[in-house]
Write a structure and sequence with these properties.
Blueprint: E1 2-6, E2 16-21, E3 28-29, E4 34-39, E5 44-48, E6 53-58, E7 65-66, E8 71-77, E9 98-99, H1 145-154, H2 172-183, H3 218-233, E10 236-244, H4 246-261, H5 268-282, E11 288-290, E12 297-299, E13 305-307, E14 309-311, E15 314-316, E16 319-320, H6 328-343, E17 357-361, E18 380-384, E19 388-394, E20 397-411, H7 417-432
Parallel strand pairs: 13-17, 17-18
Antiparallel strand pairs: 1-8, 2-4, 2-7, 3-6, 4-5, 5-9, 6-8, 10-20, 11-12, 13-16, 14-15, 18-20, 19-20
This protein binds coenzyme A (COA).
Length: 439
């Protein structure tokens, strides 16, 4: 008997998005087998099959918005397997869907999810020799209960699997691809084996004095994953340099009043974004990403610049899109708006995706230099420290000049040392004489 399976009672949720479809026409399903996953801004849920049978037709697709009662699947039901009467009235409460722990979209942190065209799937991640199966980050992975169950059955640590679903969600096929890659790899993956990282042994600190344990924020945990991933996968080199920003600062100050009449704060970061675009134009290999197979480079013909914002939950990297097409005031406005949104936890996934190059400014805090970690899949990041007045020997005498120290970390697999130094030298030239921005 063919039966239209509908979305059951999903509480107060309305227009909830279909994020995953677990079945296709012809699939045999058991009672309680997951049919689709839906996600609101608060939680994700799986809709299980209310009977055993064969899926005859899908009535929804990924991205559709559904409500209680929306038909999702035509099922040829196996007689006598339905849990609830097939002719249940719409007014009768349907079986509750499986609720999953609240999950917000991932990477709000330093490294955004891979940027993909609609419908495009990234190549499955092949495990690298530095991954250690069992060092579990599974609990933090973004996956539905059925995928979690599936990965448990196979003994796969979801923390090592890259999700190809929407917002980086891990799908069953990602787990399969990962497993296949591990099985076909000659290397041995296991705790402390092969080229795996040696583990830091756990310490019972309470043996040495009173301690208190506090959970990390979700943002910090996601950020930790991204930073660790970059750190262990990318051979970083950091090139230090400085720029004489005396003239730039004078110009910036001369424009402060005009900016403030428009409600804007024209900070140094605005100029840094502009200067970075000019340097990226001159050195396209810095505005690129290494292809996942490591065989080619993807050069970007757009200039989306990320900037690190410190929030009480952790680091967020909003992205200013098409920074090359925006004037200083427009950049200043966007920068302030995005930083505010980040701090108020209102930033949306598209606003942290698509970055080509990141700037991390600690200038307002102080310090003379630091080595920023690359925001993969980008290939370079600029770390800016506090500018200070220094005596500089110019035209036969010492003159007080405002000197800005900065550092560029770059991916040495794709950028040579000479290019790194030339990039920072050029950036210094632009910042010293901002007329270069016009060139
Ligand atoms: N040297 C000297 N002073 C600097 C400076 C620099 N390099 N950069 C900023 N300042 C000054 C500004 O001029 C401003 O001074 P003012 O209030 O007298 O005008 C003050 O520091 C505060 O600047 P701020 O408002 O923070 O603006 P910004 O545009 O420089 O930075 C953010 C905006 C969002 C990037 C910044 O607030 C932030 O969150 N930075 C943290 C980044 C981070 O955590 N990085 C670490 C990643 S590993």
């Amino acid at each position: 008997m063919e039966r239209e399976i509908k979305v059951p009672n999903i509480g107060d949720f309305h227009d909830v998005e279909v994020i995953d479809i677990a079945v296709k026409p012809g699939d045999e399903v058991q009672l309680e087998s997951p049919l689709i996953s839906i996600e609101s801004d608060k939680a994700s849920m799986e809709i299980p099959s209310p009977a055993a049978g064969v899926v005859r037709k899908l009535l929804v697709k990924v991205g559709d918005k559904v409500n209680e009662g929306t038909p999702i699947v035509m099922l040829e039901e196996k007689a006598g397997t339905a849990k609830a009467p097939a002719a249940a009235k719409a007014s009768e409460p349907a079986r509750e869907p499986t609720k999953v722990k609240s999950q917000e979209p991932p990477p709000y942190a330093a490294a955004p999810a891979p940027q993909l065209e609609a419908g495009q799937r990234p190549a499955p991640v092949t495990p690298t020799s530095t991954q250690t199966v069992g060092s579990s980050m599974s609990a933090r992975a973004y996956a539905s209960p059925s995928v979690r169950k599936f990965s448990r059955e196979l003994g796969v640590d979801l923390g090592l699997v890259r999700g190809s679903g929407r917002k980086g969600r891990i799908l069953q096929e990602d787990v399969k691809a990962f497993t296949k890659a591990v099985m076909s790899d000659n290397r041995v993956f296991g705790k402390g084996s092969g080229a795996g990282l040696p583990e830091i042994p756990p310490v019972d600190f309470s043996k040495f004095g009173p301690v208190e344990s506090k959970p990390l924020s979700r943002l910090k945990r996601l950020g930790a994953q991204s930073l660790h991933r970059s750190w262990i996968n990318i051979p970083h080199v950091t090139q230090f340099d400085e720029a004489d920003i005396t003239e730039l600062e004078a110009f910036r100050k001369s424009k402060l009043e005009e900016a403030s009449t428009q409600g804007l704060k024209l900070t140094l970061l605005t100029f840094l974004i502009k200067a970075a675009v000019v340097a990226l134009r001159k050195f396209p290999e810095f505005n690129a990403s290494l292809a996942p197979d490591g065989e080619s480079m993807v050069y970007k013909n757009y200039f989306h610049i990320g900037f690190a914002v410190n929030t009480d939950q952790g680091l967020v990297v909003p992205v200013i899109r098409d920074a090359d097409q925006k004037g200083l005031f427009e950049l200043a406005r966007e920068l302030t708006e995005l930083a505010e949104k980040a701090r108020e936890k209102k930033i949306k996934p598209p606003e942290i995706q698509g970055g080509c190059f990141t700037i991390s400014s600690l200038g307002h805090v102080g310090g003379t230099g630091f080595t920023p970690i690359i925001n993969a899949p980008e290939v370079a990041i600029l770390g800016v420290s506090r500018s200070v007045m220094k005596p500089v020997y110019l035209n036969g005498k010492f003159e007080p000049r405002l000197i800005l120290p900065f550092a560029l970390s770059y991916d040495h697999r794709v950028i040579d040392g000479v290019d790194g130094a030339e990039f920072t030298r050029y950036l210094s030239t632009i910042l010293t004489d901002i007329r270069h921005i016009l060139l």
